[in-house]
Write a structure and sequence with these properties.
about 280 residues; alpha/beta; Nucleotidyltransferase, domain 5; 2 domains; 5-stranded mixed sheet; 15 strands
C-alpha cells in the first residue's frame, strides 16, 4: 500500500511516495514559491505529477503545511509563505481523484517521531521544529492531543515590547533579534559563524537568543510534561554551539534530537495518511 506525502515548508516543498511501513520510495524537492497563491497551488500540483503515480497507485494524498489549518483541511494562512485562504483539499481531490488530508506540518513531523522516531515505545512526545519558523505539537498514545496552533506565534516580551516567538528566535528570527540590537546579518549561518568565532557582539545576541529558547523549552516541559521533546530544524546545523548548554538549562526535560531530521514531515504525513485512509 502506498500514499503520496507532502511536506510543505517556508523554504522547500518535498513530495514522496511512501509505503505503509514509513519507508520513502521516491522523493522530489523544490524551493517553495512564495507570495503568490495561484503559483503556489500550481507548484504543489506540479511536484505531485513528478512522482510515478501509475507505478505505485497511491490511495491518498497527505500533506503537512506551515500554518493554521481547519479540521476540514482548509488553510487559513501560511505566514512564512505569505499567502492566505488556500483550499488544497478541494483542488487536489478534483485534480488527482484521490482523498486528501491537510494538517499542520509540525503535527505531521510530531506524528513521525511519536510512531517511528524519538518517541517510539514512549507514551508522550512533544515535537519542536526551529527553522524558518517555530512549530510544535504533542502526541499521546500515537494520537494528536494538542493540535498545533502555531506555538511559534506566541507573544513573548523582549526589551519592553512583545514579539511573536518565531520572529525573534527562529532561524530567520535570530536575524531580527540582532537587528533590534543594531547588528545586521544576511542570514543565520553568518550569525552562528560569528558566534563560533567568539565575536563579542554576536555572543551577546546569542546569549539573549538562548534565553528565549530556554524559556520556550521550559514552558513546553512544564505545560505538557512529555516523556521526550524531539527537536529538529535548520538551527541544528549549529547545534554544537548550544545543544549541551540548552539541555543543561532545562535539566528536568528529556530533550533529544529528532530521529528523522529532514524526513520527519514526509514520514509523519505518510503515517497519518495511512491511519485515516488506510482502512477505507
Amino acid at each position: 500500500m502506498f500514499i503520496i506525502a507532502l511536506d510543505i515548508g517556508g523554504t522547500n516543498i518535498r513530495a514522496a511516495i511512501a509505503r505503509n511501513d514509513g519507508k520513502l520510495l521516491q522523493v522530489v524537492k523544490e524551493n517553495t514559491l512564495r507570495h503568490d497563491k495561484e503559483l503556489f497551488i500550481a507548484q504543489v500540483k506540479g511536484i505531485i505529477t513528478q512522482l510515478d503515480l501509475s507505478k505505485y497507485d497511491p490511495i491518498a494524498i497527505s500533506i503537512g503545511v506551515p500554518g493554521r489549518v481547519r479540521k476540514n483541511g482548509f488553510i487559513d494562512e501560511l505566514p512564512n509563505i505569505g499567502i492566505k485562504n488556500i483550499d488544497l483539499v478541494t483542488t487536489l481531490e478534483k485534480t488527482f481523484k484521490l482523498p486528501v488530508s491537510v494538517r499542520n506540518d509540525a503535527e505531521m513531523a510530531a506524528f513521525a517521531e511519536a510512531v517511528f522516531g524519538a518517541g517510539k515505545n514512549l507514551n508522550s512526545t512533544y515535537f519542536v521544529t526551529i527553522s524558518t519558523g517555530i512549530g510544535g505539537c504533542l502526541i499521546v498514545d500515537q494520537a494528536i492531543k494538542n493540535p498545533s496552533k502555531e506555538i511559534g506565534h506566541t507573544l513573548v516580551a523582549y526589551r519592553g515590547n512583545f514579539y511573536e516567538l518565531e520572529k525573534i528566535a527562529s532561524g530567520d528570527g535570530v536575524i531580527k533579534l540582532a537587528a533590534l540590537n543594531n547588528i545586521y546579518y544576511a542570514n543565520a549561518p553568518s550569525f552562528f559563524k560569528d558566534v563560533a568565532a567568539k565575536v563579542p557582539y554576536a555572543l551577546k545576541i546569542f546569549e539573549e537568543w538562548l534565553i528565549l529558547i530556554t524559556d520556550f523549552f521550559t514552558f513546553v516541559n512544564k505545560a505538557f510534561t512529555p516523556d521526550v521533546i524531539a527537536v529538529t530544524g535548520g538551527v541544528l546545523k549549529s547545534k554544537e554551539l548550544f545543544w549541551d548548554e540548552l539541555r543543561k538549562r532545562v535539566p528536568n526535560a528529556n530533550i533529544q534530537i529528532a530521529h528523522f531530521s529532514e524526513d520527519a514531515g514526509l514520514v509523519g504525513a505518510a503515517s497519518y495518511g495511512f491511519k485515516i485512509f488506510g482502512a477505507q
